[in-house]
């Protein structure tokens, strides 16, 4: 009986959370379609004009392009340099390993605002502050460790014996990488790539600190427009926010087509389900 | 071609070093160096003739500035407690599975993809003075005047909760479901009721993970920035330390002072971690002694 | 860059004349192999036998080139190979957990080595099918490792290694993950393949039955030290020390003091009694030694001449099917294990005869 009350409490909380989430999201969505809305439960009239307004006024095509460019660049670089590091950390043991793991973990542990200011100062000092390059470099700082820590357990799952038997069969290092490691690491790579992608798009603090006029990501541009002297109508802001949400959803959907985790896992029962 | 080694004390051959180099150098160059550089410039105040600690002195002499520590702390601590307790409650309750587990987990994690700005906009709209919640409560006659839930610390707490809860929940869920279920079963066989099981068997086992979750959420909450601006009162009751740092950097263009504030923020977080670790030590001793001889 | 395989394509199991080595291996401060000496001739089947942790798998890994030795050298046909990387040594290896590539089919696994050599696909196809036929897995080409049973996976692993006509086959406890019945079947298959293909094999196991049935020579290891090398007969009948004797089933060890020698027999004082045993070189009167005897060699009842008779009480009886094995308490705290077809009763007092020629005289350690 006690247990049932507990379960009830859990369901109630979940219900409350879902309603809360729904309320928040719906309000923004409704507002983005509202012609004018003040004080009533629902706006008296609807329009899609705010979307075109937002697209034009906030230069969303440029902003979206920048955002996706930065996101893909970060994913590519983070995977490229994180993959070999994760391999070594998974396979080898050496005295400095705990120190190295801590070092990789620090950018994830320490909040971005704390190291973001000195980082921004440094990058501005190198003249890349406010540029797309600057944003990429900054966002990579927590994303490279993220890629490493996501890939690590996937590597640990691949038995060393598999590499050894490939070696005994005559495979060179490159061949082992291409024909054994890469195919077996595919789920890991895709998972890491997806998480880095989503985290980059939604990254605020670092992208914000390093943003310049033409290098604002979608979320940073959204933030700036909220405070653009109140000239921007709230409906257009909400329209932009909806566009942001749709972008992230779209990215997630596309990525999930390739990363259904159960689909790509080569379990030892060999089935691709 | 180098062999795949697996034995000697140090297994760092050339290939391993080449594999580690790019990412390691990146972290050193883009994290460690700026960090140290930040500390360095914090000690080089803008005013030429001032002492090296003058930034820090100025900070602690200016109530407008040093009060941010208290403000931020008063925001971060309750939020963290709330997040951790609710996450514990949910994760513990869901440890043996629940209906539609995957759907529910997805929904709980959804806020991550919304992003802080969308979330803040939505909170303003839903919980605002003229928002849906107030309209509903007023129309239902439950309240006389609208609840002020935004543009204050309540709004910020809310925003922080929604941002930090998913991560904390996932962490604790993973941690708790990793505990051997047969421990619980054997406790039940020995006659323990659910509350006793939680208090004497499960909680001591969950405690380490709980501490880590608490530490991480607190540290993240302490650095709150956009929420404090958007759904809080950045000039007043929710002027957090990160706002102070930002203003120095991008409004006053005093990078030195800004870095000093960032350093102070980091030290506060470090202090909190130390306190948490000490509390954990105390807890371990207490539980070991309380449970008695194993 | 393809590894060179000069012998590839030439008949089955291009033979080696001699593999020779003396290796030491240290992990941190611990010596895992201590100047381990080995000589393997062409077409031999040599087994490393010993309990877990004795270093036998490490030795195999060093021979394969996967683990570098701390000290020592390995020579193949007179040429030093320790600096040759594993993919160039031309050895085949079968792992304890099979290590089949989960993302490749049976065909893909067995063909892997050949595909690395960039052989024409018609040739690969033919050779793989032949090999699968040889290990009795014809028709399984398109299955994935996860869809196979343990025994089938093991055969794929063997086929995969053999496909490249390795000059030396290395087996690392390949059967220990299989159930008892399957182990006996696979054992016979391995033995047959070895003979049929004229292989040279080094086999690692902790199971003495496997070692005895498969090997030309057995190398017994304990904590990195060589305890004895010999034919299965020699290891079984004439162990050289207590460890090997114990490992090979001598369950009875009597602490004795040696007395005088006469006519090839030596007196051994055991708890006030004089036992007779075959004398051995290097054992002198007055020495403390150990007499070992197998439970199945102990006879019930008194011998005709009353020599080597002990008396004791049955303390424990183990039923083994056709036989019983019983623990007999002799006077004092000495114990003797006896195996017999006859029925033994708990608490019974028995006379036991220990035939002199079944004793093995060993050094006390």
Account of the protein in words:
Mean pLDDT of chain A is 85; it is low at 261-273. The longest helix of chain A is centred in the N-terminal third of the chain and has 32 residues, at 60-91. Chain A has helices at 2-32, 49-57, 60-91, 97-109, 112-125, 132-157, 160-168, 173-201, 205-209, 218-226, 234-258, 261-264; strands spanning 34-36, 45-46. In chain A, helix 2 (49-57) crosses helix 11 (234-258), helix 6 packs across helix 8 (173-201) and helix 10 (218-226) packs antiparallel against helix 11. Chain A has 273 residues and is an all-alpha fold. In chain A, strands 1-2 form a two-stranded antiparallel ribbon. With 294 residues, chain B is mostly helical. Chain B is built from 13 helices and no strands. Residues 1-9 and 290-294 of chain B have low confidence and may be disordered. Chain B folds into two domains: 12-42, no CATH class; 52-291, MetI-like fold (Orthogonal Bundle), CATH 1.10.3720. Chain C is built from nine helices and 20 strands. In chain C, strands 6-7-8-3-9-10 form a six-stranded mixed sheet, with helices on both faces. Chains in contact: A-B, A-C, B-C. Chain A: One of its GO terms (cellular component) is plasma membrane. Chain A: This is ABC transporter permease.
The amount of beta strand of chain B, in percent, is under 5%
The secondary-structure element order of chain B is HHHHHHHHHHHHH
Could you please say which CATH topology of the largest domain in chain A applies here? Answer: MetI-like fold
Low-confidence parts of chain A lasting 5 or more residues at pLDDT below 50?
261-273
**CATH class term of the largest domain in chain A:** Mainly Alpha
The CATH topology of the largest domain in chain B is given as MetI-like fold
Order of helices and strands of chain A: HEEHHHHHHHHHHH
Tally of extended strands of chain B?
0
Q: Kindly report the oligomeric state of this protein.
A: heterotrimer
Please identify the top-level CATH class of the largest domain in chain B: Mainly Alpha
Tally the structural domains of chain B: 2
Radius of gyration of chain B: 24 Å
The CA-CA distance between the termini of chain B, in Å, is 53 Å
What is the percent of helical residues of chain B? over 70%
Q: From the helix content, strand content and strand pairing of chain A, which structural class follows?
A: mainly alpha
The rounded distance between the terminal residues' Cα atoms of chain A is 41 Å
Domain ABC transmembrane type-1 (chain A): 64-255
Membrane topology (chain A): Multi-pass membrane protein
GO biological process, one term (chain A): transmembrane transport
Keywords (chain A): Cell inner membrane, Cell membrane, Membrane, Transmembrane, Transmembrane helix, Transport
């Amino acid at each position: 009986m006690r247990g049932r009350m507990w379960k009830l409490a859990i369901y109630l909380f979940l219900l409350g959370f879902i309603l809360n989430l729904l309320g928040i999201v719906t309000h923004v969505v409704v507002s983005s379609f509202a012609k004018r809305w003040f004080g009533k439960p629902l706006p008296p009239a609807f329009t899609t004009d705010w979307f075109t307004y937002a697209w034009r006024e906030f230069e969303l095509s440029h902003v979206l392009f920048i955002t996706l460019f930065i996101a893909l660049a970060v994913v590519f670089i983070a995977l490229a340099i994180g993959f070999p590091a994760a391999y070594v950390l998974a396979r080898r043991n050496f005295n400095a390993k705990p120190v190295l793991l801590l070092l990789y973990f620090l950018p994830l542990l320490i909040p971005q605002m704390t190291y973001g200011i000195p980082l921004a100062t440094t990058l501005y000092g190198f003249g890349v502050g406010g540029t797309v390059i600057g944003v990429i470099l900054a966002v990579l700082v927590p994303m490279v460790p993220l890629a490493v820590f996501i890939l690590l357990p996937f590597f640990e799952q691949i038995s060393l014996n598999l590499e050894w038997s490939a070696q005994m069969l005559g495979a060179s290092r490159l061949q082992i990488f291409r024909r054994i490691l890469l195919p077996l690491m595919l789920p890991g790579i895709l998972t890491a790539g997806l998480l880095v992608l989503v985290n980059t798009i939604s990254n605020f603090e670092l992208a914000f600190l390093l943003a310049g006029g033409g290098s604002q990501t979608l979320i940073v541009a959204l933030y700036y427009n909220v405070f653009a002297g109140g000239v921007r109508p709230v409906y257009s802001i909400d329209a932009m926010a909806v566009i942001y949400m749709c972008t992230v959803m779209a990215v997630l959907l596309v990525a999930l087509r390739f990363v259904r985790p159960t689909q790509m896992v080569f379990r030892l029962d060999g089935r691709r389900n | 071609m180098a062999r795949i080694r697996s034995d000697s004390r140090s297994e760092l051959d050339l290939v391993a070093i080449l594999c580690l180099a790019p990412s390691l150098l990146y972290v050193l160059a883009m994290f460690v160096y700026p960090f140290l550089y930040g500390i360095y410039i914090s000690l080089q105040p803008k005013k030429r003739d001032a002492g090296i600690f003058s930034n820090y002195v100025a900070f602690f002499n200016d109530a407008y500035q040093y009060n941010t520590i208290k403000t931020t702390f008063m925001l971060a601590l309750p939020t963290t407690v709330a997040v951790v307790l609710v996450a514990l409650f949910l994760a513990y309750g869901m440890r043996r599975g629940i209906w539609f587990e995957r759907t529910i987990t997805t929904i709980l994690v959804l806020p991550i993809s919304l992003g802080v700005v969308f979330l803040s906009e939505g909170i303003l709209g839903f919980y605002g003075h003229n928002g849906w919640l107030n309209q509903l409560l007023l129309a239902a006659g439950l309240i006389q005047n609208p609840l002020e839930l935004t543009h204050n610390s309540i709004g910020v707490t809310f925003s922080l909760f929604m941002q930090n809860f998913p991560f904390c929940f996932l962490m604790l869920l993973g941690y708790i479901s990793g505990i051997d279920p047969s421990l619980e079963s054997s406790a039940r066989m020995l006659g323990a009721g659910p509350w006793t099981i939680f208090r004497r068997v499960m909680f001591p086992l969950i405690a380490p993970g709980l501490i880590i979750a608490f530490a991480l959420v607190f540290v993240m909450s302490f650095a709150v920035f956009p929420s404090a601006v958007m759904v809080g009162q950045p000039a007043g009751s929710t002027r957090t330390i990160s706002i102070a740092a930002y203003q120095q950097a991008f409004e006053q263009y005093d990078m030195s002072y800004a870095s000093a504030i960032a350093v102070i923020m980091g030290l506060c977080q470090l202090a909190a971690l130390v306190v948490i670790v000490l509390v954990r030590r105390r807890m371990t001793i207490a539980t070991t002694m309380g449970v008695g001889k194993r | 860059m393809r590894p060179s395989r000069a012998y590839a394509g030439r008949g089955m199991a291009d033979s080696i004349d001699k593999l020779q080595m003396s290796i030491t291996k240290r992990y941190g401060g611990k010596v895992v192999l201590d100047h381990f000496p080995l000589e393997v001739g062409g077409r031999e089947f040599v087994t490393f036998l010993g309990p877990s942790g004795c270093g036998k798998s490490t030795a195999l890994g060093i021979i394969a080139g996967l683990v570098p030795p701390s000290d020592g050298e390995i020579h193949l046909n007179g040429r030093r190979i320790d600096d040759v990387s594993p993919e160039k040594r031309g050895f085949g290896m079968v792992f304890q957990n099979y290590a089949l590539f989960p993302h490749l089919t049976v065909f893909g696994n067995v063909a892997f080595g050949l595909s690395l050599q960039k052989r024409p696909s018609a040739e690969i196809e033919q050779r793989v099918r032949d090999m699968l036929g040889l290990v009795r897995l014809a028709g399984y080409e398109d299955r994935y490792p996860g869809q196979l049973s343990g025994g089938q996976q093991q055969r794929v692993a063997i086929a995969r290694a053999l496909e490249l006509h390795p000059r030396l086959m290395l087996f690392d406890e390949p059967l220990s993950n299989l159930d008892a019945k399957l182990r006996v079947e696979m054992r016979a298959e391995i033995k047959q393949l070895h003979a049929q293909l004229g292989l040279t094999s080094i086999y690692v196991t902790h199971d003495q039955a496997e070692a005895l049935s498969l090997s030309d020579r057995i190398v017994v290891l304990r904590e990195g030290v060589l305890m004895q090398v010999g034919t299965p007969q020699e290891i079984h009948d004439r162990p050289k020390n207590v460890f090997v004797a114990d490992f090979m089933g001598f369950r009875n060890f009597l602490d004795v003091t040696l007395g005088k020698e006469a006519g090839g027999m030596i007196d051994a004082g055991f708890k006030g009694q004089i036992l007779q045993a075959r004398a051995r070189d290097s054992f002198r009167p007055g020495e403390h030694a150990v007499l070992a005897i197998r439970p199945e060699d102990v006879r019930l009842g008194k011998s005709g001449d009353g020599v080597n008779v002990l008396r004791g009480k049955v303390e424990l009886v183990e039923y083994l099917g056709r036989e019983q094995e019983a623990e007999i308490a002799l006077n004092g705290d000495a114990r003797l294990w006896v195996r017999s077809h006859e029925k033994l009763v708990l608490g019974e007092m028995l006379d036991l005869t220990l035939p002199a020629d079944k004793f093995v005289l060993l050094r006390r350690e």
